[in-house]
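Structure ticket #2291
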Amino acid sequence: MEAVQGITMQGALNKLIGGENLSRGDAGDVMRQIMDGQATSAQIAGVVTALRMKGETIDEISGFAEVMRSFSRHVDTVQEGLLDTCGTGGSGIHKFNISTASSIIAAAAGVRVAKHGNRAMSGKAGSADVLEALGVNIGLDEKQAAACLEDIGICFLFAQLYHPSLRHAAGPRRELGFRTIFNLLGPLTNPAGADRQLLGLYDRSRTATVAEVLGSLGLKRALVVSSYDGLDEISISAATTVSELGEDGKVRTYDLTPEEAGINRWPLSAIQGGSPQENAEIIRRIFSCEEQGAYRDIVLMNAGACIFTGGAAGTLAEGVHKARAVIDSGLAGAKLQQLIQKTGELAHVS
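Resolution: structure written out below.
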C-alpha cells in the first residue's frame, strides 16, 4: 500500500535515479513509508542505494531524521543543556569505547548527559555492550531513563528499545552490506531530544554537512568530528577535522591537533580495544587512575570536547583540564558507580 499523500517510493526512486535531490518533505514522506512498514525491502534498498550514489543532501538527511524522531519512543525531560555523545561507528578500527567513557566523565563534570547508543556494529563492543559489562542496566524504558537522568545527571538510551520501527529496514541494511543514510540517522535521533552533541563521523568529507543537519534539527551546539587516521573520534594520533555548530547557528570547520589541547601524540595501535569485558576493564583502570597512557589521553581529549560542548568549559583545552581533574579526584569512578546502582534500582520500578 502506497502513501495517500506525498511522494511514493517509486516516485522518489525515479527522482533519485535521475540525479534529482529530494526535498525535505519528500524525504520525510519516504522515511514515513519505511517506518510504518508500507515500503517493500526492494524499495528501501533501491532508495538508500540511490541516495548513497548521488550523495545525501542536508534536506534529505534532515527529512529522514525528523520522521525517525517522530516514530521514536520519547524521554520526557528538560532538553536544554542536554548532551549526547553518540557516533556513527563504521571506522573499521577496533578501538575501545571512548565516547562511552567520555560521557561518564562529562556527567561527573556537571554536564547533563543522555547517552544514546547500541550494540556493536563495526567494532567488537558497542556502548551498550561495554556498559552492560560494567554492570549498568541498559534496558531502561522512557520513565526509568528520565528518572535516572533527573537523579544522577546521566542516562543510557539503548537504541534497539527506542527505535522499534527501524526493524522494517533491518533486512535491506544487512543484505546491502555498505554504509547508507541509516548509518547517519542513529546519532541524529536522540530520544531525549538532546540539544548539544559530540558526534563522531566515519567520513571526514561530511562533517560540515552533518553539523548543518544538526542545526536544522534544532541543536544549539555541536562538534562533528572525524580524524585523518580514520577514527570517528577526536584522535591523539593525527589531526581531526572538526565542524563546530555554534550557538549563533553557524558552522565553522577547522583541524584540531592533540597538542592544541595539551595532549601528547600516541600511535593508533595504543588505543586498540577488545571484547566488552576487556574494554570495561580499560575504563575501570582509567577511572581508578591506574591507566596513565594513551587510553587515558584519548578519553581526556574527547571528554574535554564533551565538557566544552556541554557548556561547562570555555575552550576545549579547559575541558581537557576539567576532565583530568574529574578523573584524578575520583568523581568519574563515583559517577560510574552511581549509574550502576541507579539503573539497578530502576530495573525494579515500573
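Closing remark: The chain has a mean pLDDT of 94.
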